[in-house]
């Protein structure tokens, strides 16, 4: 299992090299205040960037803008970042590094902050891997961090400094925002956005909700049916008398796939889980001297629920179509599956219980609107995991047709 996960992780990381490069309409504002329309490489930053790539036109060379030479940039109808010098607390929430001080440990930093709400009351976000900090500003006042910090007390209790609630109560004075609501407010993006939206609406302020502009459907449910081409061979290390090649057989598969789109990198990455029913049946009759009547029937009846769990990466072609690549670890749940060895008269000589190991699958597919078509290849699966002297090789290639329900 550990080996499978390492292989899967290596494949996933290698997908990054195939990410689609897109330059989209936007603008930059230089330190001089000059605003310039351009095309910006939109990688839907998971962490706040320190630099961007842009070009003035499709045929222009790619240039780099950094914190040193621009004060703002934005991608039309998508996102906006502004440069501020702020007092920033980077206190860790990792249990090994939690501070013993209640108060923030501020240091001055110059950053691109992501604009979430812009209006009379503005909300900003900074992300650096596991670190998330929110900032706010009223009118043209200085930008301040909303203070939230975990710390450990002298009696080794982990507690929270939730001073952001007091900051919001002091600054967002409005009849629609009660003290009880602020007390219940979590340090979460959605809840903070809602309260800033409510405040701007209460003040009849013109404001922009940038997260509303970029809201996307982040969950897909697909029905998936297909055809398997499967083969199975078994070998006994102590004796080759019952070694059997069951051959390649066609079988149906049917399942449902839940896909969770990750909210960064322009929705190019997703987590997938696809419970699927599959079967493989084959019967081989061989002439053997040690069985009464001289004939041995080897019969495999392999039914299971496969549960692939993995990642998907999209390469967008246009608004309606896209290519995708999958890598999954398959957890296979056998359904009373056996390999039987029977004499010519029908009596049972011996039987083996099928207990499969996990394996890995790779898929390449095409998606058009609600439909998808995928070719999936699995690595070899051991299905006789309980037996010391038996080895097996189950191989499978699938053609899968999918239809998106929602």
Q: Overview of this structure, please?
A:
The chain has 406 residues and is mainly beta. Helices cover 12% and strands 53% of the residues. The protein has 5 helices and 24 strands. The strands form 3 sheets. Strands 1, 2, 3, 4, 5, 6, 7, 8, 9, 10 and 13 form an 11-stranded antiparallel sheet that branches. Strands 14, 15, 16, 17, 18, 19, 20, 21, 22, 23 and 24 form an 11-stranded antiparallel sheet that branches. Strand 17 and strand 18 form a beta hairpin. The longest helix has 14 residues. The relative contact order is 0.11. About 1% of the residues have low confidence.
Short structural description:
The chain is mainly β and 406 residues long. The protein contains 5 helices and 24 strands. It is elongated and about 95 Å long.
What key attributes describe this structure?
5 helices, 3 domains, Porin, eleven-stranded antiparallel beta sheet, elongated, 24 strands, SH3 type barrels, mainly beta, 406 residues
Q: What is the secondary structure topology, with strand pairs?
A:
Blueprint: H1 2-15, E1 23-30, E2 35-41, E3 51-55, E4 63-66, E5 70-75, E6 79-89, E7 106-118, E8 121-128, E9 131-138, E10 144-145, E11 149-152, E12 158-161, H2 163-171, H3 179-184, H4 189-202, E13 208-209, H5 210-213, E14 219-236, E15 244-261, E16 269-273, E17 276-287, E18 295-316, E19 321-334, E20 338-343, E21 348-353, E22 359-368, E23 371-378, E24 390-404
Antiparallel strand pairs: 1-2, 1-5, 2-3, 3-4, 5-6, 6-7, 7-8, 7-13, 8-9, 9-10, 11-12, 14-15, 14-24, 15-16, 15-17, 16-18, 17-18, 18-19, 18-20, 19-22, 20-21, 22-23, 23-24
């Amino acid at each position: 299992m550990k080996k499978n996960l390492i292989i899967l992780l290596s494949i996933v990381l290698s997908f990054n090299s195939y990410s689609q490069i897109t330059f989209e309409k936007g603008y930059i504002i230089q330190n001089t205040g000059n605003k310039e329309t351009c095309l910006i490489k939109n990688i839907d930053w998971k962490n706040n960037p320190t630099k961007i790539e842009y070009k003035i036109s499709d045929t222009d060379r790619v240039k780099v803008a950094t914190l040193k030479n621009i004060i703002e940039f934005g991608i039309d109808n998508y996102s906006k970042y502004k440069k501020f010098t702020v007092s920033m607390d980077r206190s860790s929430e990792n249990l090994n590094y939690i501070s013993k001080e209640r108060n923030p440990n501020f240091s001055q930093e110059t950053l691109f902050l992501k604009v979430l709400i812009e209006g009379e009351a503005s909300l900003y976000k900074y992300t650096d891997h596991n670190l998330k900090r929110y900032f706010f500003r009223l009118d043209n006042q200085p930008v301040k961090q909303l203070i939230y910090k975990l710390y450990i007390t002298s009696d080794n209790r982990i507690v929270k400094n939730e001073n952001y609630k007091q900051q919001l109560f002091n600054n967002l004075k409005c009849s629609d925002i009660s003290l009880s609501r602020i007390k219940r407010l979590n340090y979460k993006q959605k809840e903070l956005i809602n309260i800033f939206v409510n405040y701007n609406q209460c003040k009849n302020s013109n404001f922009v909700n940038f997260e509303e502009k970029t809201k996307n459907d982040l969950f897909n449910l697909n029905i998936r049916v297909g055809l398997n081409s499967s083969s199975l061979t078994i070998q006994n290390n102590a004796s080759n008398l019952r070694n059997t090649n069951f051959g390649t057989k066609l079988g149906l598969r049917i399942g449902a796939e839940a896909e969770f789109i990750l909210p960064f990198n322009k929705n190019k990455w997703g987590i997938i889980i696809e419970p699927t029913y599959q079967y493989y049946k084959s019967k081989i009759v061989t002439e053997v001297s040690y069985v009464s009547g001289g004939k041995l029937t080897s019969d495999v009846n392999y039914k299971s629920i496969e549960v692939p769990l993995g990642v998907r990466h999209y390469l967008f072609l246009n608004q309606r179509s896209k290519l995708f690549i999958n890598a999954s670890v398959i957890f296979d749940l056998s359904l009373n599956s056996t390999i039987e060895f029977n004499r010519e008269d029908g009596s049972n000589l011996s039987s083996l219980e099928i207990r499969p190991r996990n394996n890995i699958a790779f898929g390449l597919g095409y998606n058009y609107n609600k439909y998808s078509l995928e070719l999936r290849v699995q690595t070899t699966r051991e299905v006789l995991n309980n037996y010391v002297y038996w080895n097996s090789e189950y191989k499978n290639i699938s053609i899968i047709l999918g239809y998106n329900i929602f």
